Every structure is written in C-alpha cells, then in structure tokens.
Amino acid sequence: MSLAKRIIPCLDVDNGRVVKGVKFVDIRDAGDPVEIARRYDREGADEITFLDITATHDNRDTIVHVVEQVASEVFIPLTVGGGIRTLDDIRRMLNAGADKVGINSAAVANPEFVREAAERFGSQCIVVAIDAKKVSQAGEPSRWEIFTHGGRKPTGIDAIAWAKKMVDYGAGEILLTSMDRDGTREGFDLPLTRAISEAVPVPVIASGGVGNLDHLADGIIEGKADAVLAASIFHFAEYTIEQAKRHMASRGIEVRL
Amino acid sequence: MSSVAVIDYGMGNLHSIVKALQHAAPEVDVVCVSDADSILRADRVVFPGVGAIRDCMQALNQLGLSDVIQQVAKSKPLLGICLGMQALLSDSEENGGIKCLDVFSGHVVHFPESLKDSDGNSLKIPHMGWNEVHQLQQHPLWENIPQDSRFYFVHSYYAQPNDAAIMAATTQYPDAFTCALAQDNVFAVQFHPEKSQAVGLQLLENFMHWDGQA
Lengths: 257, 214
What we know:
With 257 residues, chain A is of the alpha/beta class. Chain A has helices at 33-43, 61-71, 87-96, 105-109, 112-121, 159-168, 190-199, 213-221, 232-235, 241-250; strands spanning 6-14, 17-22, 26-31, 48-52, 78-81, 100-103, 126-134, 144-148, 153-158, 173-178, 204-207, 227-230. Chain A is built from 10 helices and 12 strands. Chain B contains 6 helices and 13 strands. The longest helix of chain B has 12 residues, at 197-208. Chain A: It catalyses: 5-[(5-phospho-1-deoxy-D-ribulos-1-ylimino)methylamino]-1-(5-phospho-beta-D-ribosyl)imidazole-4-carboxamide + L-glutamine = D-erythro-1-(imidazol-4-yl)glycerol 3-phosphate + 5-amino-1-(5-phospho-beta-D-ribosyl)imidazole-4-carboxamide + L-glutamate + H(+).
C-alpha cells in the first residue's frame, strides 16, 4: 500500500455562489460554497479547488471570504485559481487559508511570474493550470496547444513543451484541462493526460469531461494522472465523493477511504 | 490557560496550523510569535515550515531563534512539522548541504531519482498526497490514531536518523522512509497534521495535552 490517488471536487465560484456552466452558457446555481465544501470534506474529498470566475474586479474579495470561512473548519488542502495575476494576489489567498494557488493566463502572458511565485512562496503551493485543445488532424500524430480565455484564444504553444517549461520554472503540480472535453461529460482526454503526465516529474491533476465514475478511474489507470478533478457530477449529488472512491477502489486504484 | 507558541519565522503560511490548533484544542491559547521571550514563555511550541532549508536556517539565525529552538528541545513539548522536522536534524543535503539544528542526530536526503512503483510507473516528486503512516512505537501523540492512517504529505526530502530507536513511524514511497521522529519531549512529523482532516486534528489535540514524557 502506498500513496493514494486523489479525488478533488472543484467549485466554480461566481460572486460568492457555486455555479456550473455547461460549455459556459447555461450557468446553473449549485449553492453556497462553504456549505458544499463542508459536505465534500465529510464525504472524504482529498482536497478542494475553488475556481473564481467572478468577472468584475470589485467582487473579487468575495472569494477571499469564502476561503477564509472554509479554511477555519475544513482541514484538507485548499487550492484557489482564477484571476491570480500578481504576487500580492497569491499572498492574499495564502493568508486567507489557501494552501495552493492555480495560475493560468498570467503564466501564459508572463512565464517569469511562475518563477517569481515559486521562489517567493515555494513550488509546493504553485499549481499551473493548463487549458489544452487538440490541434492535430485525424491521421496525424496527436498534438495539443494551449488556449486561453475559456478555450477561445489559441496561443500556438505546444501543450507538452509548455508543461515541461512550467515545471522548470517551478510549478509544483499541473492542473490539466481538456478544452475539447470540458463540460461534455464524455470523459477526460486520456491521450493528452497520459502524454503530459509522462512528460513531467510533478503530479498531474486531470480535469475536463467527467460524466461518470468510470471516467475518474480511466483518468488514473489510462491517463496516468495522480489526481482527478470534477465539478458537476458532485455538485448536484449525482454521486458522492465516497461512491466515487469506492468505485475507483473496485477498479484496483488506491484511495483514501 | 495553557499556551502554545507557533514559531513565525517567515517560512510559509501559518493560517492553517493556527486554525487547526484552535479547532483541536479550543481551551488552549494559540499565539504566532517570532521572539525568543514569547517562545520560551509558552507551555508548548510548534515549529512549522515549508520551502527550502537554506532560507529556513537563514531566517532562524537572523532572528536568533536557532539557540531558542535548541533550548526548547531540552525543556518542553516541541512539535516539528514538515520543514520544521527537517531543520531539527543535523544537516540536509538540500541547497548543496546545509547545517541544521542537530536536535535529532541524522541527515535529510532527497528521494532517489527515477523511482518506480510496482507497476513500473514513474513516481512523482514531490511526494504529494495522502499516504499511510505506520507507527513503530507506542507514543502519546499516536493515541486514538489507528495504525496505518493516511496523512497528507508534500515534500521532496526526508529524514534519515542515525539512531533507529527515535523512529516513530515510516511511510512507503516506494521504500519505507522515516516520517515521524520521537525523542524525549520532541516529536516531529514530515506530513501536515493541519491538513490531514480527523487524524491530523487528533494528533494536534494529543500534542496539546502531552506532558513531554514518552
């Protein structure tokens, strides 16, 4: 027996409420983030990730209060992503009780930011979030590129090369989202997940596309991910975290039960 | 009211550990301090830390806290966590070799490169996530914590004590390494009890009631 594979529920938070956008259109309200985080903790979540999708700058303090409240009663690792652009943003989240921050577009805009952040706060709290989309045609060897702005803006950067570069710059973990699969409930992009996981020495969290419990297990077994992240299948109580873990265990995956 | 001092020397965020200590033992006064007097006055001391060992030792020396921690280690319950544990060894091979506090005789070493699990997959460094802690001795800090409970880890270096008798627990990644040390009134853990849910809070509660005797 050894290290358990992690299940990480993700809460998309907009103005202090948990929402789940299906392909960013139909945004459904899923409730109070503190209440939901408490439930996930009770059900055995290994970590919790908050993704702040609040559009207006004025309302960004809301996520800080959410993290503060959750951190004073939930004692598992907490990650906050969304809108992390400066060292000061990171400090604010860590002071609120986050253990890690997710950096996405700010890393694409300025890779040095990841290096500075890792030097200042330590690699253990720097998660680089990568949104990747397949760009190769059928019949060609698979190739994925980094996209920003919710998958709308191509950057021309190769996803595998980018993941390696981010680790060199000090990322302690990679949160990998397939923009082709996000919101589809068709399962992770397994070849992408595996390619990134085998390319980097740090843990990789698979994200984007989970629709059932087998998808989670596939991400670990075939995608070689170290952790799996999902949002909607947990929010609307289709499955509990515990059910997900028992299912993964039944497929031979080591989990914390 | 009994008190616990959490040493604040700029290495990482103390929010979690303070909240977890308050939660585990609401009757205890928890203070974050960086001066010798406050540390020496407290009934118990927690020595946390994340980051690199060179920065850690530099910060301790600048604040004049190295001697203070060595003094605490001879006099009252002391809990080292993560980098705080590593700093209690004699030296670490991180940053090209750094002399540490030598409360525990031994070294801090990096996980070997290219580790594989039993299926031949490469093991990731840092060792990050929930792993089993195998208790090697009876100790007041293990009270009410089931054998092989999972705690949350995140680290790339680990302690190698010279004296096996002070090993309090091991964890496998993929070989067994020492994840807890116990010697007189000092206990140290590589994992993060403040992030290890119920078992972590239990360990902190045990520490808050520990009189420093094994």
